[in-house]
Write a structure and sequence with these properties.
- By secondary structure, the protein is α/β, with parallel strands linked by helices.
- The protein is 43% helix and 20% strand.
- It has 3 domains: 81 residues, Orthogonal Bundle (Arc Repressor Mutant, subunit A), CATH 1.10.10.10; 113 residues, Periplasmic binding protein-like II (D-Maltodextrin-Binding Protein, domain 2, 3-Layer(aba) Sandwich), CATH 3.40.190; 108 residues, 3-Layer(aba) Sandwich (D-Maltodextrin-Binding Protein, domain 2), CATH 3.40.190.
- The chain is built from 11 helices and 12 strands.
- The strands form 4 sheets. The protein has a 5-stranded mixed beta sheet with strand order 4-3-5-12-6, with helices on both faces. The protein has a 3-stranded antiparallel beta sheet with strand order 10-7-11.
- β1 and β2 form a beta hairpin.
- The termini are far apart.
Length: 319
């Protein structure tokens, strides 16, 4: 089996499209088709079922795929070893989410930009199930997750930190007087108020990111279960837009504390005394059994180090 045929097979198996594989590999589509037929001929087995305009792996293709990926990874590792490159180099496809990209990863991205310029990071914005599926298929090398569960089928994970969540409102919001810190609409300083219960949020207008966001979905499920009806959500596309909506008095929002730390410190937003009945964990994940190239292993190690340094540097009130 020629290595280039396995590379083409792995790409087609990952994207399940001859056309997309050809574009990403910079081949003519006829070349991709010819290479797959050549590989099938050498193995004496069909690797794809052709279903009109769609394709899927046959049983033989499913069996071959993990071996192809291991061979490709070993070939890349061997090339780097022979070249004797002292400086880390290579591309890392990273699945991540907006909150982590904007608030957890800037120090990591800056580090790699300046210290490891030959490592190219390609950030792909995805959430939850989509990230996990892309990792299993080999589309992503690394994925960042913010999930309640810390074990995922077919993946290896490193838990970086528990991710505190906070329910926030504007100082002018009717619930502002229940906030544990800040000022009410009249400007008077608030004191620590009685805890808010989930039932207290039954008729409150909620502001949130799009469905699929883990804390949004868990919050919505909790409200629906406790209050017996779908909660009234006003959806915004990004965390920044959500924060602006809350600051403008449109409703309350549950967000990772790291995303609203500055607004809480300035009093632009107030923290409400509602404790989420669930805990999320920020994690870095990769495909189980994958031989990690040195530059990918380095990325994971630096991620763990920097996030844990960030956590140790927090003020106690931020935890």
């Amino acid at each position: 089996m020629e290595l280039r045929l396995l590379v083409t097979f792995e790409k087609v198996a990952t994207v399940l499209s001859f056309t997309q594989a050809a574009a990403e590999l910079k081949y003519a589509q006829s070349s991709v088709t010819s290479q797959i037929r050549s590989l099938e001929s050498s193995l004496g087995a069909e690797l794809f079922d052709r279903l009109g305009s769609r394709i899927r792996l046959t049983e033989a293709g499913e069996r071959l795929l993990p071996y192809a990926r291991r061979i490709i990874e070993l070939a890349d590792e061997a090339q780097r070893a022979v070249q004797g490159a002292d400086e880390p180099a290579g591309t890392i496809n990273v699945g991540t989410m907006e909150s982590l990209t904007s608030y957890r990863l800037p120090a990591l991205l800056e580090l790699f930009h300046h210290r490891y310029p030959k490592v190219r990071l390609s950030l792909r914005p995805t959430l939850g199930d989509e990230t996990r599926q892309a990792l299993r298929q080999g589309v992503y090398d690394i994925g960042f997750l913010m999930e309640r569960d810390t074990e995922h089928a077919g993946l290896e994970t490193e838990v970086l930190t528990a991710e505190p969540l906070v329910l926030v409102c504007a100082p002018t919001h009717p619930l502002a007087e229940r906030a544990g810190a800040g000022r009410t609409a009249g400007g008077a300083a608030t004191s620590v108020a009685a805890r808010l219960e989930t039932a207290d949020l039954a008729d409150v207008q909620l502001v949130g990111t799009e469905p699929g966001c883990p804390y949004r979905d868990l919050f919505e499920d909790e409200l629906r279960e406790r209050n017996g009806a779908p909660p009234p959500f006003m959806e915004f596309g990004t965390i920044e837009a959500t924060k602006r909506g809350v600051a403008g008095g449109l409703g309350v929002a549950l967000l990772p504390r790291m995303t609203v730390r500055e607004e809480l410190a300035s009093g632009t937003l107030l923290a409400l005394p509602w404790a989420p009945p669930f805990q999320l964990y920020t994690q870095v994940a990769w495909r189980q059994g994958k031989r990690l190239p040195a530059h990918v292993r380095l990325f994971i190690d630096e991620t763990v180090r920097l996030v844990r340094e960030q956590e140790s540097d927090r003020w106690p009130s931020d935890r």
